[in-house]
Design goal:
The chain is mainly β and 322 residues long. It has 2 domains: 46 residues, no CATH class; 269 residues, 6 Propeller (Neuraminidase). It is built from 2 helices and 24 strands. Helix 1 runs antiparallel to helix 2. It is globular, with a radius of gyration of 23 Å.
Length: 322
């Protein structure tokens, strides 16, 4: 009886712990052939990755589908940057031409370009969700401001209480929650915007961080520095319910101007980004790391406590009966 009771509790607790944890991250490097630098910026649930790279002819966007990399450019662009891809396959990003920086959405090879009204040539588009809503930021005479583009409607985003002209919007999920960064007059902080309700966050012990992407479960991915000067290098992070996990590609060099930077996350917790070392900038993709709830038949902590009490009571009852 003693052995059976102990074994039952041990199995239940070990099952609960396993359901709440996940294995170590593994990293796969992404380098476009012939490129001097490769950066992976966005990923969808099918595992399609987008980003950009540099070669002798300039900056070009790419899409990586199961390891097959295809490059593309916005017609007439000097440089093209792809930052996001949704589950429909629409790609969002920015391009530079002779008149400045502009946003684009690529739907099956058909490009739609846009500028925030009144700031032609200063619009940087970032991520896109499954409804086709795009986030990004624009620059005007007062600084930088986030934006959301839904259909033909632009909405400006400024974090309340933040330093004027310091808001950058990067990621958006299917619920319309937006993440990015702002300056609080001292350091950069991450923020989330859920329908105009703002929450800010900071990785403990750091002074400079940015939220870059958010998935359907509300998991936020981004990067941080340990100081404003970036002398310790960059480190990626994943924020799951306020619990931060640091992400460092083992090939990254952790010193000034180097490190690991996470830019994208999909619904299974796969991360994409870049790492920097002495050989340049390289893209990476990780394995899936979603945290699932306890499986059927494994009780929550409160249920475990009740079960433990019941087992103890059963043993005491048997002793009294004997």
């Amino acid at each position: 009886m003693r052995f059976t009771t102990a074994a039952t509790i041990a199995v239940l607790f070990s099952g609960f712990a396993a359901a709440q944890s996940f294995a170590a991250y593994t990293f796969t490097t992404i380098n476009v052939s012939g490129a001097t630098n490769t950066i992976a910026s966005g990923i969808n649930n099918a595992g399609q990755i987008v980003g950009h790279y540099n070669d002798s002819s300039g900056v070009h966007a790419f899409i990586d589908t199961s390891g097959v990399i295809t490059s593309f450019d916005v017609p007439g662009a000097i440089a093209t940057y792809a930052y996001g891809i949704n589950n429909i396959g629409q790609i969002s990003g920015s391009y530079i031409d002779a008149t400045g920086t502009h946003g684009f959405v690529d739907t099956g090879g058909v490009f739609s370009t846009f500028n925030v009204p009144g700031v032609a040539g200063a619009t940087t588009a970032q991520k896109i969700n499954d409804s086709g809503v795009v986030t990004g930021f624009f620059n005007d005479g007062t600084g930088s401001h986030g934006f959301q583009l839904a259909g033909a409607t632009f909405t400006t985003i400024n974090v309340p209480g933040g330093l004027a002209g310091s808001t950058l919007a990067f990621g958006i999920n299917n619920a319309g929650v937006i993440v990015g960064e702002y300056n609080n007059s001292t350091t950069n902080r991450g923020f989330s915007d859920a329908g105009g309700v703002f929450s800010t966050f900071a990785v403990t012990g750091t002074t400079n961080q940015a939220g870059q992407a958010i998935n359907t479960a509300g998991q936020i991915a981004g990067y941080y520095y340990t100081d404003n000067a970036g002398t310790g290098g960059g480190h990626g992070f994943v924020d799951i319910g306020g619990v931060f996990t640091t992400i460092n590609d083992p090939l990254a060099l952790a010193s000034t101007s180097f490190g690991t930077f996470v830019y994208g996350i999909n619904d299974t917790g796969v991360l994409v980004g870049e790492f920097r070392n002495l050989t340049g900038n390289h893209g990476f993709v990780t394995n899936a790391q979603i945290v699932l709830p306890p499986p059927t038949g494994v009780p929550e902590p409160a249920s475990l406590a009740l079960l433990g009490s019941g087992l103890i009571g059963l043993r005491l009852s048997r002793r009294r009966h004997a």
